[in-house]
Design brief:
single chain, alpha/beta, 6-stranded mixed sheet
């Protein structure tokens, strides 16, 4: 009888979900968090925009994440960064920076996303790790076409010989698909680890975005608010942390827009959570320079 009277109101655990979320997320407060992003301005006078560089395996959703952030901030579906739903090879070939419109054509958000070719396990496939290291230092200009066989040379027209703070990367984001965290090849993980260590040596803050969470977990596909109750996603985040060294507190699961024709508040909430931390980490970095 006493057991019935004092029975917990917590949701009983299912095979896929925990009884309580292991990380809190402010569902239903999108506009509040969106205003924080809208109000952000860099405090460093040398800088007009934070530069956020996305890297990761081919097909991880880097371009899709850029479009999802743009969709969130525009309040409508957008497609600045070209995506491909068919090819198993990297679709992005060019070093390109994406700016996001704010209140009109002449005003922009004070942060940009740089998209690059994906990493691949083969030696002469995908982006050259040396190119990534040079990009972080600000040596690569927009428009550079990646060559998987060799890194950019100092004689290239797209090589920036005298980068300033605005050219450098201020936040490095590793993008990884949730379903394939534990099946990435040792060669690909080694490349990502090499990039991480290079960013560490430059003092660049690092985060990770875990994409395709709806494909990875049926409970999340049924209700995205189950994201931090999913046993599988929690395990995948921990596995990724163990393999690459990025702390779990710096890993953010998101669902990119791919089949929807209108934005969704809960999907936006997860993207906002990741974006806010990117801005905070980048702001801290540039203010230490």
């Amino acid at each position: 009888m006493l057991g019935r009277l004092f029975k917990s109101s917590a949701r009983p655990e299912s095979p896929q979900t925990l009884s309580e979320p292991w990380r809190e997320i402010p569902w239903g407060r999108k506009e509040r968090d969106l205003q924080v992003v809208r109000d952000y301005e860099p405090h460093n006078e040398e800088l007009e925009q934070l530069r956020i560089l996305l890297h990761g395996p081919t097909g991880s959703g880097k371009s899709s994440f850029i479009n999802s952030v743009d969709t969130l901030l525009q309040g409508r579906m957008t497609c600045q960064a070209l995506e491909d739903a068919v090819s198993q090879e990297t679709f992005t070939k060019e070093y390109r920076t994406f700016k996001i419109q704010k209140d009109g054509p002449d005003t922009l958000y004070p942060f940009v996303f740089t998209d690059i070719m994906g990493l691949e396990k083969e030696t002469n496939r995908g982006v050259d790790v040396q190119d990534l290291k040079l990009a972080m230092k600000g040596h690569i200009k927009d428009g550079y076409i990646f060559n998987p066989v060799s890194a950019i040379s100092e004689d290239d027209n797209c090589y920036n010989k005298a980068p300033t703070l605005k050219d450098r990367v201020h936040v490095l984001v590793c993008v990884i698909p949730a379903p394939s965290v534990n099946i990435q090849s040792a060669a690909t993980v080694a490349k990502m680890r090499e990039v991480r260590l290079a960013a560490r040596d430059l003092g660049i803050p690092q985060l990770a975005v875990l994409t395709k969470i709806d494909e990875a977990c049926p409970a999340v596909k049924a209700d995205i608010r189950n994201v931090y109750m999913s046993k599988y996603l929690k395990k995948q985040m921990e596995l990724f942390s163990d393999s690459l060294g990025i702390p779990v507190k710096c890993i953010f699961p998101v669902k990119n827009y791919h089949s929807e024709i209108d934005p969704d508040d809960d999907t936006d909430t997860l993207i906002l959570s990741a974006l806010k931390h990117m801005i905070n980490f980048g702001e801290d970095f540039v203010n230490r320079r």
